[in-house]
Amino acid sequence: MTAQATDAPQQALASYNFAYLDEQTKRMIRRAILKGIAIPGYQVPFASREMPMPYGWGTGGVQVTAAIIGPDDVLKVIDQGADDTTNAVSIRAFFAKTAGVATTTATPDATIIQTRHRIPETPLKAGQVLVYQVPIPEPLRFLEPRETETRKMHALEEYGLMHVKLYEDIARNGRIATTYAYPVKVEGRYVMDPSPTPKFDNPKMHQSEALQLFGAGREKRIYAIPPHTDVVSLDFEDHPFEIQHFEEPCALCGAEQVYLDEVVLDDKGGRMFVCSDTHHCESRRAEGHRGALLGDEPVFGTTPVGDKEPAI
Amino acid sequence: MAHTPASTTIYEGGFVDPVGASQTGFRALMDAMARPGSIHVLPDVTAPPAPLTASAAALIATLADADTPVWLDPALTKTVAVRDWIVFHTGAPITAHQSEAAFAVVAAPEKLSALNGFALGTQEFPDRSTSVILQVATLTEGVALMLEGPGINGRASLAPDPLPQHFAAQWMANRQAFPRGIDLILAAPGAVAALPRSTRLTRSEA
Ligand SMILES: [Zn+2]
User: Fold this and answer.
1) Non-local CB neighbours of B31 within 8 Å, separated by 6+ positions
2) N or C terminus of chain B with fewer C-beta within 10 Å?
3) Do B161 and B109 form a contact (C-beta atoms < 8 A)?
4) Which burial class, exposed, middle or buried, applies to B110 when counting CB atoms under 10 A from its CB (0-12, 13-18, 19+)?
């Protein structure tokens, strides 16, 4: 199937393959995805292609999504938990245009969720695929810059350096200060970078119902966590892993036990904490939940939730 | 290697809709690999020369290309038609050496004596291994294999037939080589299942 952009002035320039990537590139990425699934947490090298967006815009995630997506998929894209940032909107538009797929902001309606820096608060379910955009896939990179050495360390399961780094944290701060990209061990074998998600999200990776795929475009790596796979955050007996805790609930929807972003309200130091997951917050408000800042007046509560965006 | 195809039939029977068919086939295989023991529908979209089956042909057409040497078992090399079909429809080179194969297609799994002759990858690059496509008659009527590991909620079962000789012992050895090892793709009529190297066989009723 070849998608044709009928609104472009130059037909010849506007012709591209389904989901943009050529079939040979898709095959190469698909093969890497299969190896990644078979070896959970291992970084599979792949020949990353130039994409019509700059690195840092999720070219690795975009290539993974392009290799798996089909016309019946429903795509959700989030950036820091939000569906409406420039990055998320452009990636959604890219696939609506090149693959003709339906898009959504509703987590339960999506078959593929591409994400930068968050895992949705709504628990994922079987059949869903979470695609992470990864800037630096190598968890040992800051300890050992040489690829040949980090590869050896993974091969020999030599992860002592990583523990030393975390322990230095404790010596310096009295606790493990790493709050995002917090390293995990997958199925008792590979130490893996969960991408720059807050460590709050690490427990969601463990025994997830969904398939998790990771794409690093600039660094040319793909890795995966199958559903129902053990994902354990590294820690020490006397300093067990802990997620972030927030003092107050979301100011808009009153949600507790979710990840909150700090929002500055004015230049007098006024601030509030609100859900980073915008769909979760909107759903709760649509159900009638009210945070301290909203009282009984639904301020943002009129946003329709879960409406499918038409394919462009 | 100059060679004239035995008949024009090798030019037939490829994907009518290559983009759509390979996406559908890949997604079925990805789900099968992500959930070992689960069985996924594989639409009949190829008409390859016998004894290559439509399922195995769809998978190899989805996965293989000039970058991936393919090894064929003796049952598939009896005639040149299968080799020619694969070369024509995928561009993949055919290799006589198991250890050089990115993919292997096996029409007679019961005659496959050893799994460890294939590429198992290295400790540093365990992905440089052979994915072995076994043509099986069934995924549900054979001897039940009990499976555990990543992708499986507790325990799963699968009953493919035929399987290579001494399969339980061979698979245990493959699992012990982890992260090195082969991944098995089971191509049944109209369906696909998979046993990635991470899957442990807990009990076989054999
Ligand atoms: Zn909220």
Assistant:
1) A211, B38, B40
2) N
3) no
4) middle
* DSSP H or E segment with residue B168: helix B167-176
Q: Would an 8 Å CB–CB cutoff place B63 in contact with chain A?
A: yes
Joined together, the tokens standing for residue A174 give 């009295």
Ranges of residues in chain A with a pLDDT under 50 are 1-13, 297-312
What is the whole-number distance in angstroms between the Cα of residue A136 and the centre of ligand 1? 30
Residue type, A285: R
Bond prior to B179 in cis (omega within 30° of 0): yes
Q: What ipTM is given for this predicted complex?
A: 0.95
pLDDT tens for each residue of B107-144: 999 999 899 999 999 999 999 999 999 999 999 999 99
pLDDT tens digits along B167-177: 999 999 999 99
Catalytic residue (choose from A36, A41, A217, A301): A41
**Cβ atoms within 10 Å, residue A152:** 14
Query: Nearest CA to CA, how far is A132 from chain B (Å)?
Result: 17
Assigned token pair, A47: 């020949």
How much is the pLDDT for A165? 86
Per-residue burial over A221-240, b if 16 or more Cβ lie within 10 Å, else e, is bbbbbbbbbbbebbbeeeee
Token duo for residue B45: 């979209």
Which of B34, B64, B102 is opposite residue A226, by nearest beta carbon? B34
> Domains of chain B by range and CATH?
5-10+17-204 (3.40.50.11310)
Strand A231-233 and strand A184-186: the pairing is: antiparallel
Report the DSSP beta bridge partners of residue B145.
Answer: B158, B204
pTM: 0.92
- Residues by chain with Cβ below 5 Å of ion ligand 1: A 250, 252-253, 255, 275, 281
User: What is d(CA A189, CA B59) in angstroms, rounded to the nearest whole number?
Assistant: 30
Say how many Å lie between the CA of residue A273 and the centre of ligand 1.
9
Is the CB of residue A261 less than 8 Å away from at least one CB of chain B?
Answer: no
Q: At A169, list the tokens.
A: 């944290």
Q: Is B67's CB within 8 Å of A37's CB?
A: no
Contact B62 A30 (CB under 8 A): yes
Q: Which residues of A279-292 are buried (b: 16+ CB within 10 A; e: fewer)?
A: bbbbbbbbeebbbe
- Is there a cis peptide before residue A108, judged by omega within 30 degrees of 0? no
CB-CB under 8 Å, B33 with A37: yes
